[in-house]
Amino acid sequence: MKSYVDYFATDDCEVYLGDALSILRNDIPDSSVNLIFADPPYNIGKRLSNFVDKWPTNQDYINWCENWLDICISKLTDNGSIYVMSSTQFMPYIDLFLSKRLEVLSRIIWHYDSSGVQAKRFYGSLYEPILFGVKDRSNYTFNSNDIMITAKTGAERRLIDYRKPVPTPYNTTKVPGNVWYFPRVRYRMEEYEEHPTQKPESLLERIIKASSNRGDVVLDPFAGTFTTCAVAERLGRHSIGIELQKEYFKIGLRRLEITSEYESEVLEPIKKNHRSRRKPQMRLLDA
Ligand SMILES: C[S@@+](CC[C@H](N)C(=O)[O-])C[C@H]1O[C@@H](n2cnc3c(N)ncnc32)[C@H](O)[C@@H]1O
Fold first, then answer.
1. Torsions phi, psi of 181, nearest 5?
2. Strand duo 261-262 + 265-266: pairing
3. Which CATH number is correct for 6-141+178-266, 3.50.50.60, 3.40.50.1980, 3.30.390.50, 3.40.50.150?
4. 221 CA to middle of ligand 1, Å?
5. Per-domain residue ranges for the chain?
6. pTM (predicted TM-score)
7. CA neighbours closer than 13 Å in the CB half-sphere of residue 125
8. What pLDDT, in 10s, does the model give residues 103-133?
9. Is the shortest distance between the CB of 20 and ligand 1 below 6 Å?
10. Which of 2, 12, 199, 232 yields a CA-CA distance of 20 to 30 A from 226?
11. Which residues of 133-148 are buried (b: 16+ CB within 10 A; e: fewer)?
12. For residues 231 and 211, is the Cβ–Cβ distance under 8 A?
């Protein structure tokens, strides 16, 4: 019996409709993937098409995560890397589990601003954690030159370090630290798709540039809108995306330009109405 419901392949990517665990087990060869980006459901009760992101108990969710994490690790090449996202409350369990199996090199915070509903009786969550682990800390890809960012002290304040024997200007660029700011994907952004937890292309761009090379295989077991595959393809990597929900799989087929029709349906981007989605904002007058 096939382990997936549907499958398409081009020269640049492969996309599966079905359950990540059975597809990973049956269709992805061991030691064949250079980079995995895993952004699973967070067990916080969000509706994801026909699926509600809530397990009967927290332990059930953690067991499920441990299951696919183990399979993912077996798919990585010896010099492979994995990035894993989850909710703030479940990441510590994933961290403890992964730390026994891999070298966790960075615990990254992706933070963003929120102008939506604000918490009033506790500190609202404005970040999502990302773990970065490698199989072998002495042999892994990290293209620091491809992800340099501006170092404000040198580039904007133009300070000179007078403690050096010869006074030297501070560096104008640096490798990003482990706190990343990227805006969330908003309705008016070009990349927006109809999915409640779509990740920004800018976030994936940093990860894919840093931790893979052109021609490498990049896999996303919980592809959602197939952001990982879209960015990987643009950067010349071969990508594999797996998604359980047909509604999101169809977004992937269109976004990756694999086909413009699926089951007799023409796959079209959502039609945006920029005016009707937002309440008019009050203009702040100068005091
Ligand atoms: C957090 S979202 C991923 C969003 C994605 N990173 C993006 O940029 O669009 C998680 C996705 O995993 C999918 N999913 C849930 N269970 C799955 C499973 N067992 N196998 C494959 N995909 C699954 C959900 O339908 C959802 O689209």
1. -105, 120
2. antiparallel
3. 3.40.50.150
4. 7
5. 6-141+178-266, 143-175
6. 0.93
7. 10
8. 999 999 999 987 776 889 999 889 999 999 9
9. yes
10. 2
11. bbbeeeebbeeeeebe
12. no
